[in-house]
Amino acid sequence: MPEAISTVFTNRVLKSFDSRNQVLAHESLRPNYDIRASHPDFADLRLGERRTTELASVFLDLRQFTSRSFWDAPEEAADLANAVLSGFTYVVETFGGYVIGLRGDGLLATFGTGDNGEISTFAAAAACAVSLNAVQTQLNPELERRGIQTVQVRAGADYGPAVFMRTGTAQSNEVNVVGFPTNFAAKCEKKALSWEVVVGEGFANELKDKSSLSKHTSPPTSYTREGETQFYHAYDYAWRPLLKELDAGSADELRQLYPELTGGQR
Amino acid sequence: MSLASAMKYHGMTLDRWMDSTGKVHHGARPTAAAMPLASHTFHAGEEATDDTKQPKWWLEEDAMTREREQMRTWCPQFTEFPGNDEQPPMWHGTINTGMTTFSVAIVHRVDHGLPFIVPIGEGTRLRKSTPHRYVNGNLCVASAEDWDPTEHTAAIAVGWAAHWFSCYIDWLFSGCKTWPLESHAQQAA
Fold this sequence. Notes:
The structure holds 2 protein chains of 2 kinds. By secondary structure, chain A is an alpha+beta fold. Chain A has helices at 3-18, 65-71, 74-94, 117-145, 180-191, 201-205, 240-245, 250-257, and strands at 50-63, 98-103, 106-111, 152-168, 173-178, 197-200, 213-215, 221-225, 228-232, 234-237. The longest helix of chain A is centred in the middle third of the chain and has 29 residues, at 117-145. Chain B has helices spanning 3-8, 65-74, 154-173, and strands at 16-18, 24-26, 35-36, 79-81, 90-96, 101-107, 116-120. Classes of the chains: A alpha+beta, B alpha+beta. The A-B interface holds A 1, 118, 121-122, 125-126, 206-214, 238, 241-242, 244-247, 249-250, 253-254, 256-257 and B 1-3, 5-12, 14, 26-28, 178, 180-181, 186-189.
């Protein structure tokens, strides 16, 4: 089990949470401040320009956070979400991924920018496994010790073609990622219960050994056009056995063996 | 536990290499002198007996030439005990896992099947509960089907034994609970 990554995750989350209300002077007051939610390989896209690649998309989400934010003071909920998402960002980057988008209670990350689907999906799965485990086994016990309600996490993922495109106006624009697998990964995240990872068919197809997968209880999603209907399936991914096989050096070794994961940017 | 084991969970395999000391590496070739390890899986149970009625293959001309060349190149720490009219050849040597060193004998069979891998010296101090050993105590480093006598020599047997010892060390570090997944048939989730 990659204890070192989980420990760093927990320490970062707690440090971020403990330093709430402290605006970091050197990062404040910049207009349109970007919290580094972008992919460096596509930062050079000009407005309206696009590039297509194959990658694994992952949505990591704090489950039942809406109800939490109903009851908690807005600032408290925001501080905790911010802290946990900062931890997820660390785990994503440790396994060679990039955080593409941050929303209140979750994030979108991508892994791989080439045609090595096996490695991209492996890295994505490892990041999900370590993130879920770190929250469940390290962060939550610490939150309980502090008298703070624990958090619950889930993940959805898929693999396939995605288009990076800079959209917006000259004054306000960002690089957006669009693609069926990315959209379906979001659906998978919604299907997942706490501590589950649900993956789409594209992700499942990249696994040579499918014994970690079981068909999700929800019916397959159907898509119909001009009288033709096709189905796309979601699967429960058993992440705990993968966690048992990872060790503290696995992430570093993965990035060294497969530099294409990070596109040589890291 | 290792990246290779984790990747096996997805059905992926990393290339394996053995350097001249017996240490096993995964992924990229560590040095030009490293030997690639052919695919193999560990098992257990009763070791197959040797069919001693088969022709004495090692007595044929040049039968051992390629093996001696490969052993010199990749396993210089091993010493040959040549075969004779009654016994097939064997090799004795050490395997350095990077953590500790084990001694083994690679004993060819009369039927030229998968050699016996016999722990000797410090190699006999394995835990009693060690998985992937035959009932007779020999190491099970591959299945009979993994071995191809037309292609493989004692060098690959040394490499498989080196991988076995590498997994043994990982097993020890896991508290004798988990043998690396990369080395045997994956269990259903």
